[in-house]
Specification:
Distance between the termini: 24 Å
Number of domains: 1
Number of helices: 7
Largest sheet: 7 strands, antiparallel
Structural class: alpha+beta
Bound molecules: zinc ion
Order of helices and strands: EHHHEEEHEHEHHEEEEEEE
Protein name: HNH endonuclease
Strand content: 15-25%
Helix content: 25-40%
Length: about 350
């Protein structure tokens, strides 16, 4: 969950809207009641949970909750049913809300951010117009209490918070930022936190496709080493726009090489890219958390975070003219903090 001090967020719809609209118009947002709204792909219904609710004969509030996934205007939101199948363990029951970044992540003040951006030479902070107030930030009501609170909250988010805050503190406190900083981390817990939040994105995602089966098995079993299919890359992300992208395909050089199937989480101050069964790990020239893990990775290491040159702000979800990204329409979300003079 977001800390209360983080305030409200303006939420965009799909990443595709975020990238095209932000470029063309400077930002269009929609949403109410904490939900992001995106247009569902043709043929996509309310999802399996609604059917399940009907079959189980649940009372009307549950049916209404299920139908929130697609409202009168055909838009999908992130809340989903109050009861349904957990996006991770698939148990049927009450669902809880997962927030990214988790509660306890430091947020920098605007003046601090501008200084960091200036120090790193990351370019001007963009103006965004047409904002709409949206309390609550980006969250998905898709996880059972055990996965969300016991595993993510009590075990893995602590590490994600510690790592994120260590990067924040470094960026805020340094008078002259070095090219690379070393950040302490427990790579096994960090990776499980990232994978857990990715699994939470999107309502009624079942049955799991093979990659999500691998991901959920790995998340649920702390004794399992990172599967061969999963690589997690990390970089400094000193920007305010947040990105939660469940699955997309990156085509770095327009069909001359294999596409890279990836997921992405970005928020100040870090970005994480998960690649799925990548053919050559050197294709992503960033620290790969796999390389810092012995067995399950449940130990302390230092992760080098490169500050210069910075990874481009919109990479990998909108890589620019040198590459293409294919998004499924409702698999990605972006958000920018509101109430900021940026
Ligand atoms: Zn669960």
């Amino acid at each position: 969950m977001y800390a209360p001090s983080l305030g409200a967020f303006n939420t965009f719809g799909s990443i595709r809207q975020l990238t095209t609209i932000q470029r063309e118009k400077g930002g269009v947002v929609s949403g109410q009641d904490g939900a992001i709204e995106v247009t569902p792909p043709a043929g996509r219904g309310c999802g399996a949970d609604v059917d399940a609710n009907f079959k189980l004969g649940l009372s009307e509030p549950y049916l209404r909750a299920g139908n929130e996934m697609q409202d009168m205007r055909g838009r999908v939101n992130t809340r989903g049913a109050r009861v349904g199948h957990c996006n991770i363990c698939d148990e049927f029951g009450p669902l809880t809300e997962d927030h990214v970044p988790p509660k306890g992540t430091l947020l920098v003040k605007q003046v601090e951010l501008m200084r960091i951006v200036e120090l790193l030479g990351a370019g001007p902070i963009r103006k965004n117009r047409n904002r709409r107030y949206m309390p609550g930030g980006v969250h998905f009501r898709t996880l059972c209490a055990k996965c969300n609170n016991d595993l993510l909250g009590r075990r893995y988010d602590k590490e994600l918070i510690r790592f994120s805050n260590a990067v924040s503190e470094t960026l805020k406190s340094s008078l002259a930022l070095p090219t690379t900083v070393q950040i302490p981390a427990n790579p096994g817990r960090l990776v499980r936190a990232v994978v857990g939040h990715l699994l939470a994105i999107g309502v009624a995602r079942r049955p799991h496709s093979p990659i999500w089966q691998v991901a959920s098995r790995y998340f649920l079993d702390p004794a399992e080493p990172i599967p061969d299919e999963i690589d997690v890359y990390v970089w400094a992300y000193p920007h305010r726009t947040q990105v939660q992208l469940r699955l997309a395909s990156l085509q770095p050089d327009f069909f001359r090489t294999k596409p890279i199937l990836f997921s992405c989480l970005k928020y100040f101050p870090v970005g994480f890219m998960v690649t799925w069964s990548i053919d050559d790990r050197s294709r992503v020239p960033l620290p790969n958390l796999r390389d810092y893990m012995i067995h399950t990775g449940d130990h302390e290491v230092s992760i080098p975070i490169q500050l210069r040159p910075l990874v481009k702000e919109r990479w990998p979800e909108a890589p620019g003219s040198e590459a293409a990204v294919f998004h499924t329409e409702d698999d990605g979300f972006g958000a920018i903090p509101s109430g900021q003079k940026n």
